[in-house]
Amino acid sequence: MPDTFLTTYLNSAIEKLIKDILKGTLSNRKETAFLLGQMKHQRENAKKRAACSHMPAFLIASITSSCNLHCAGCYARAVGMCGDAPGGAEPLSVSEWEHIFSQAEDLGISFILLAGGEPLLRRDLIGAAARHTPVIFPIFTNGTLIDDGYLALFDGHRNLVPVISIEGGREETDSRRGSGTYAVLSAAMDRLRAEKILYGVSVTITRGNLAEVTSTAFLDLLRDQGCRLVFYIEYTAIDHGSKEMELDAARREDLEGKLTTIKSAYPGMVFISFPGDEKHMGGCLAGGRGFFHINPYGSAEPCPFSPYSDRNLRNVSLLDAVNSPFFARLIDAGLVGGEHDGGCALFEHEAEVLAIKNRL
Asked: Which pTM value belongs to this model?
């Protein structure tokens, strides 16, 4: 059964998101024209989703398991999502991904977040995504591969929105992503600003960098570099030894309070907190409730932090995947859409998730 409250909330949130971005880009005629067109597309997408018994507004697609960096604490490498293919599996081809994107467009999915690995390693696939104009593709990238070719592609296809991963200032970013990375990212952001290309940043929030990445100095710098979107992603521990890096309840509350102030102070920017914003949507959005994850080999998973699956897009349609019995049982068990203390609900209840998967 569709979640009427969530459907209404997400449809309104998508329209508000586009309007809020539009406020910060009125001096950019090309971006303004694109966003006005997208408002029409997104209303049509909402109608398409309503015609289905159940269809989320978002997908997360990890389009490659390869990456050109070896970042400290990388979750994707820890769970094997980034690295060598499991059991010699072949990653989905461009034509297979194109088929998924076409189905998503027909079903009214509004956003497909492209991740990896490093998604910009799949230049052929990024070009294929660009042709699906009713869908917006935020590309979560380490930013080191943005060259003249990509700048031209982003300029010509505004539904591709680069979102650059950054940990804070030079010291924090270079410490996690490698010496010299911050300078490369700063140069890339300067070029995106010069070309008037809408872009954002993704900040992994830990106890160590919370103060820095919510500071006026950090946000002023992002604003001055032309950044219009900021995704705050709470760090999820890859093992029990790194649990101390996760935000505790007090720091999550602190972050929520800071975001209220930040949103008022930076009206030309849009701030999204994950999974913090889920509490306003009735709990975890994974498992097809608001989104699900497709790994590089086609498996439909509840989310990137819960890499378990009972369906593969090589064998079933996108509509069949979202109606997965596994996803339905996660929702019925209250692991998806139920209240939780914070952080990633499915990651915190991994044993219960596995038990459900093993009973199928």
From this structure: 0.91
